[in-house]
Amino acid sequence: MRKLRPVLLRSLCYLLSLTLGAAQLRACAQVPDKPSAAPPAPPTARSLPWLDSLLSNSAILRQHQVGLSLADAVTGEDLFGYQDSKYF
């Protein structure tokens, strides 16, 4: 019985520390104070005239006659197209 008492006491201490440690981990978890902000609205075709002029003045794109299509990954909406009917 004398040998069993320290083993039980040590096991009880380990169990108690494990329980308290698990409770503290949950108590210290970060909870956001406010919901995260919504992502900004994607640009529209009207707000990309600089890209249109850059692509239309490009000697490489004219030489190889390639197209470019820019779409929103979430909605699939086309945002910009430059000769996008041509095969890439």
What attributes does this structure have?
88 residues, mainly alpha, 2 strands, 43% helix
How would you describe what is shown here?
- The structure is a single chain.
- The protein is mainly alpha-helical.
- The chain has a domain at 45-82.
- Helix content is 43%, strand content 10%.
- The chain contains 3 helices and 2 strands.
- It has helices at 4-27, 49-56, 59-64; strands at residues 68-71, 78-82.
- It has a two-stranded antiparallel ribbon with strand order 1-2.
- The chain is rod-shaped and about 90 Å long.
- The mean pLDDT is 72.
Short structural summary:
The protein is mainly α and 88 residues long. It has a domain at 45-82.
What is the element layout, followed by pairings?
Blueprint: H1 4-27, H2 49-56, H3 59-64, E1 68-71, E2 78-82
Antiparallel strand pairs: 1-2
Query: What string, H for helix and E for strand, traces the elements in order?
Result: HHHEE
Spatial shape: rod-shaped
- Mean pLDDT, as a whole number? 72
Question: How many runs of DSSP E, i.e. beta strands?
Answer: 2
Fraction in helix: 40-55%
Structural class of the secondary elements?
mainly alpha
Low-confidence stretches: none
